[in-house]
Structure formats: C-alpha cells, structure tokens
Structure to design on (280 residues):
C-alpha cells in the first residue's frame, strides 16, 4: 500500500492522479488533515495531521511506501516531519520518499535549512528512503505571470539568474515513478526541468502566449521589496520573495540535471506551455 501525505494539496493531488495510472486505486491511501476535503480523490482517505502523531500511526497502518510531502508551515517543518518519519518507521515501511529542496545538504538557499534537517532525521531513522530534491515549481510564478499579462511588465530582482523549474505535474510524475517502481532505496534525486530559464524568458513566454509586448523589469533588492510592500505583501513575505530572487541571481536554482526527465520517461514541460496553462 502506498500512502501519500498532504494529498489534498496542489502537489499531493497530482501525485495521487499520477499513481492511479499504474497502481490500483485500492492500493493508494490519501493521508490528509481534513478528510472531508479529499472525498473526490477516488482512493481511500485517512486523517493525518503532522501535529497529531496519533493520526499518523493510524494513517500509516499497512503502509509499504510513504511519500512525505513537506509541510507548508515554515519554522515548524522539522518537528512535523520528524513525527512523520517516526510513524513511518513504526509502521515498518520499505520506502519513505520525501520532497526536499535542491542540494539541500549544502546549499545556502533560503529554503534549504529545514529540508537539510529533515533529510538528516530520515537518514538517522534507518528507514529506506528516496530524497526527491525538487527544484522550483513554475506555478510559483503564477501571480507574476498574470500581472505581466495585464501590465506588460514582469517584475523581479533576479538579474540574469536562471531557474531550472518544472511544473508540479512533472514533479508529481517523478514522485509517482519512485513510489510505484523498484530500486530507489537510499537514493537522492536532484530533480529539475530540462532547461533553465531567466525571468526575461518568463516575460518572453508571456508575450508569446498573449501577443502583447511584455518585458522583464529588473529592480534592486531594495526597490523590489518596496514594490512588494506597496502591493500589500506582508513584510516577512516580501523579504522572502526578495531573498529568493537573490538566491536565483546567485545561480542556486540554475542546474538542469536531466534526472526528472529520466525518471518520468519524457521531457519536462516547456516554459511556454506551462505559462500558457497559467494564463488559460
């Protein structure tokens, strides 16, 4: 039995759908915080709250493989993930897969520390693991893409930094391939899109899709943060966005490894196609 945590989120739902292409639905369990919101997934649904370990024990009953989709609460991820790892170990799973961040063990990426700590917890547990170090999701640029389509300007502070991003569906297909396949024990996968792109490339894709003139406006980090604050973003969120653009400018998301395409047996989704879907 394969259990997918966070199965009601954007990525989790796509993993469930990808698994159903090769695994019988009665062998898949969606582990979610609010079961009533997951009734449409077409698989067994069990309650699983990272903050309530007793629910994890029940959710993992009979599990052979578990996908731990990283939590969304920055600052709380390590204890939450530790609870999942402990429950997976108690259940005796043969594989625990985890959605991590690029080069989490060594990268100065703003997102890396909690992922690095989680990876250490997983390794120390002794549970066979597969670390899925997902690069950036193209969907994370949706707000900027939509604004660019309306205003003719894509705004950021990443300079000419490149991002080897892929779509959530691509990463979901990679996770499903690992969960449904064999021979992935104790492997670390650096997963990315096939081609790294700049923010100027995003602007060009928006222009191509909409038929409008769209350019990339590269701001200083200070001006970028000011623009975000003026647009109503909270101080912490604005700071995070600017820091991530700084990481992008420094090349921390730029490596296109080809590992995701090899896992899923096809090329990853091209940027223009992804942008067209965001604007559909």
């Amino acid at each position: 039995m394969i259990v997918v945590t966070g199965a009601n989120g954007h990525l989790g739902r796509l993993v469930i759908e990808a698994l159903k292409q090769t695994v019988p639905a009665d062998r898949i369990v969606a582990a979610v915080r609010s079961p009533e919101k997951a009734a449409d997934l077409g698989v067994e649904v069990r309650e699983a709250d990272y903050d309530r370990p007793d629910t994890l024990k029940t959710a993992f009953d009979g599990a052979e493989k578990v996908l731990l989709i990283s939590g969304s609460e920055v600052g709380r991820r390590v204890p939450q993930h530790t609870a999942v790892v402990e429950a997976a170990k108690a259940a005796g799973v043969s594989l625990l897969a985890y959605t991590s961040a690029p080069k989490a063990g060594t990268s100065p990426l703003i997102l890396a520390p909690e992922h690095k700590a989680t990876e250490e917890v997983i390794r120390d547990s002794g549970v066979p693991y597969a670390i899925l170090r997902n690069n950036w999701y193209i969907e994370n640029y949706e707000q900027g893409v939509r604004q660019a389509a309306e205003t003719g300007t894509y705004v950021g502070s990443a300079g000419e930094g490149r991002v080897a991003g892929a779509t959530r569906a691509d990463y979901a297909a990679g996770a499903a391939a690992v969960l449904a396949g064999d021979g992935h024990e104790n492997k670390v996968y650096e997963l990315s899109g096939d081609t790294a792109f700049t923010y100027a490339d995003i602007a060009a894709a928006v222009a191509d899709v909409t038929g409008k003139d769209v350019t990339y406006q590269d701001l200083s980090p200070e001006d970028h943060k000011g623009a975000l604050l003026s647009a109503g973003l909270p101080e912490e969120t604005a700071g995070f966005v600017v820091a991530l653009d700084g990481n992008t400018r420094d090349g921390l998301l730029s490596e296109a490894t080809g590992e995701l395409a090899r896992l899923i047996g096809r090329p990853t989704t091209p940027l223009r196609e992804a942008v067209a879907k965001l604007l559909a």
